[in-house]
Amino acid sequence: VTISAVVLLVDDDPAIRDSLSKELRAAGYTTVTATNGVEGLAAVQSHAPDVILTDLAMPRSDGFELISALRASSAVPIVVLSVRGGDADKVRALDLGADDFVTKPFSVTELLARIRAQLRRTTTPPPTALSFHELTIDLERRRVVQGGREVRLTPTEFSLLELLATNAGKPMFIEQIIARVWRSAPGTTADTVRVHMSSLRKKIEPAPSEPRYIVTEPWVGYRFIAEPL
Amino acid sequence: MFPGKRVATWAAAIAAIALVTFIGRILGLNATTVGFVYLIVVVFVSVWGDLLVGTVSSVVATLCYNFFFFAPLYTLTIAEPANWFALAAFLISSVTVNRLVVTARTLAQKAEQRRNEIETLYALSVDLFAATNRVGALGEAAGRALQLLGARGGGLVVFAGSTYRQTVISWNGEKPDEIEDLIAGVGRHKEPLEFPSPLGRDVYLPLFVGGRTTGVLVARGTTASKRALESAARLVALAVEREHFIEENAHMQALRESEALKTSLLRAISHDLTTPITAVTIRTESLRRRADADRDLLDDVDAIAEETSRLRRRIDNLLAMARLEAGKSKPRREPTPPADLFRAARENLPLVFAARPVTVHVDADCPDANVDPSLALEILVNLLENAHRVSPPGAPVELVARRHPLDADKIRIEVLDRGPGVPPGVTDPTGNVAETTDVAQRGLGLEIARSLAAANGGSIGLAPRAGGGTVARIDFPAALLPVEEQA
Questions:
Q1: Confidence check on the interface: ipTM exceeds 0.90, yes or no
Q2: Total beta-carbon pairs less than 8 A apart between chain A and chain B
């Protein structure tokens, strides 16, 4: 983690802004706050944050507008703070270009893990090998080691794992997966992805009943968890 | 043709023939010239009169021609045989001309009537379809149509469900009681009915669209042709159907708008309730971080966290129920691996997982559940909370997912505890948690779980567990994978 990474927090509620800023500062981040999308956009220009946390429902200019405006010019990671029952909003925000979301009320520990994952994904140069807990993925030799033992994956399974792991912490849409792994081959459906994903998960998860690397993301697709709970 | 014109035509015909005869005699015109003039008279009589007056005029003219102009004069006998031919030719040509003229005129009249009717129908169709994008204009248009079709009374009656539940859209003139039965009969038999009446005919026309009769158009004392009336009935039938759709559409629009309102209201409530709880959660975590050494303070902070979590769960429950009630979240099902549900439950109830051992097991051959992931999570979390609440401290709770033992199209998720067992009266004899009004006895959590499971095409049940405790089971539809193709 970059020691003084700047986090921009956009939320219209002062209680959230104050309490969360305090926790973020305690975790070593520099924080900037804004109360709506317009202010948020201005703060991006003046403070060049490393990661943005934004609420969706805000007066004047909401989170969706902020995400659309930002994505026109910037790739800065955006984590959405959504509410329960806002599944459609969550999917829409991801579709507009948000990188991740947490559902209110979230735990600070969880949020910090999500922020670290975003920073790690965007600030380190593309590596030749990825390593998560007991899982090591050698991208050049296309080999996978889990718990000290090599796991044999089919080429499709490896491509799936590679796509998800290089985007660790970012929910990937089924459509994105089909486009990237299958190059949108005709006849590839969500069920095709399910079949291969199910067999990949059985191979790399140390305990398939308690997945720690790959989880489903309702109404989106799949997510690789950078830091297991 | 009215009687006065008839008399005038007869009089004119006789007068014209007499005049030609008189002038012919005075001027001493020859027979050939007089014959032509007689023919002209017959042609004119044919143009003005009907076939009968024309034919009689032909015969009378022939007799006069013979009597006054063919030798021997003033007798009906003819001396020269050649004159017989002349007279016969005159008779034949005058009768033929008369027939041709009358036929042509009748055809022209019919064409004119047909043209009028078509114009009327066109005006009617414009009335019915171009002008009425509002409800209620149908009656006015139907009344105008009957007027245009020359009906002296009648109107439009539509059926509301059965042929005896009649709604009068518009009516002109008197409406005796027996008309209701006649209308019902026409509606049932789907055939037009026609009676002679003092001023023309009374015609009952069923409005027939898509195999059912929606109403009856009644034209009393009409002279319009059957074809025109039936065309009008077809148009009115389509208009009735159209009006019906307009009404239905308006109704649907209103429903959609009220749903949109509920949805945005729910979203606002969700946001407003969740925000303070989020702030409390963050502050509690902050306190906890700083209370590391202080045992007493730590206990208090944990209690706050626990109560906050309970409050949050109740709000989640109520919002999930409200969303279902509002019809907003028609459950959006998708294949959901049970292991992911268990993992989400752990994220939702960190305190339960921290307070006691929770073991998790998914059979290797267990299919995915075909459920709405967020509703399924709500159900699972409710049952897990129940199990946690009734279990003695430190006793483990188990989560198990497997194929349904009997039904290959379902999966079964079980929550096993070591609590006091199934309370009496909560389940039916088969162990299912059935619908009840006695929510208090069962607890809100279980009732919500039951409703949500039902909305997901699943069911929940409680059974005593061997060795003490309860097995709570959720049966969900399975999302079976297609046969795996080789990569």
A1: no
A2: 117
